[in-house]
Amino acid sequence: MPEGIRPPQFRGDPEAREANRLYWDTDESVNGIAERLEMSKGRLYDAITPLPVGATCPACGGPLGFANRTARDSELVSCPLCDFEAQRDEIEGDAELQRHPATQSADGVPLTDGTVVGAVLVGVAIGLILGRWLRS
What we know:
This protein is an alpha+beta fold.
């Protein structure tokens, strides 16, 4: 997997998670993946989400990523919010290119799936405690 973070699809629906894992982490053909998962190619493509590179779009501040394997192989990054596209090496030297805030903590340490899940669980626990306290 290229540098960056694990995409959000790896934390969601198990079928989409497996589709994205096979698509991004293997060289198996799209037809092979669709057949293995017993889904149509259209449904497979709907399940695939861009692979983030952990950088912010210089045009709008959105997350940059690879839209598909071909884009990844040719190092073409794009922004799903504003359709910005550029070669990865063209923008890495750009002073405006920064790590996307969703991919790092306040001290600049990259977030992992475990960190995000832990933060979500703490938030849920606090919400439950507050809800129970407010009802009493």
